[in-house]
Amino acid sequence: ILNVEQSPQSLHVQEGDSTNFTCSFPSSNFYALHWYRWETAKSPEALFVMTLNGDEKKKGRISATLNTKEGYSYLYIKGSQPEDSATYLCACSGYSTLTFGKGTMLLVSP
Amino acid sequence: NAGVTQTPKFQVLKTGQSMTLQCAQDMNHEYMSWYRQDPGMGLRLIHYSVGAGITDQGEVPNGYNVSRSTTEDFPLRLLSAAPSQTSVYFCASRQQGFEADTQYFGPGTRLTVL
What we know:
The complex is a heterodimer of chains A (110) and B (114). Chain A has strands at 5-7, 10-14, 19-24, 33-38, 45-50, 56-59, 62-67, 72-77, 86-93, 98-100, 104-109. Chain A has 110 residues and is an all-beta fold. Chain A is globular, with a radius of gyration of 13 Å. Chain B has strands at residues 4-7, 10-13, 19-25, 31-38, 42-51, 54-57, 64-66, 76-78, 87-94, 104-105, 109-113. Chain A binds chain B through residues 1, 31-32, 34, 42-46, 49, 51, 89, 91, 93-94, 96-103, and chain B through 31, 33, 35, 40-45, 48, 50, 56, 58-59, 90, 97, 99-108.
């Protein structure tokens, strides 16, 4: 079982603020890093899958970077909107399994 | 495509009862898995399958059984329900066991054991 840590646990920002979260994972035997967006009462929705050191992915106002040598990934949200309120999960691929962090809960106030 | 479907959406059981949570996918995915979600614990893997006829245990398998007789279906059986199994259960699937494949989740089953 991989140890995947996310910080902070929760975050409360104002509309228009930019924010970022961290996902830490073991750098040895790394395969892939996944980011998910999880809204209350819904199922997790995939945002990004990253495999290469230095990878950077972008989807609208959300982007992510990956550092496999030091074992971390950042998720950035530019100009947060109330609809960005959700829990953001990262998950690390091991052999045939995906281990999730506990998530960062983001609340964006209008 | 319906994607990943789960039934029922809600279920209340009494301690000691058994039941099966159904999961199906129509994307011809080889890999399927079951997670439970508990407050403060995140998503924890119960069982997974890399193809029909092949299953394996995840992080928290005790009290649950699975089988995979077809590519499409991956039911989760609670043998004798306990209050500790009160949780939200998510089924997920991905193309194969490849690490970079996107994993898709079902809508979840909210189970309460009294």
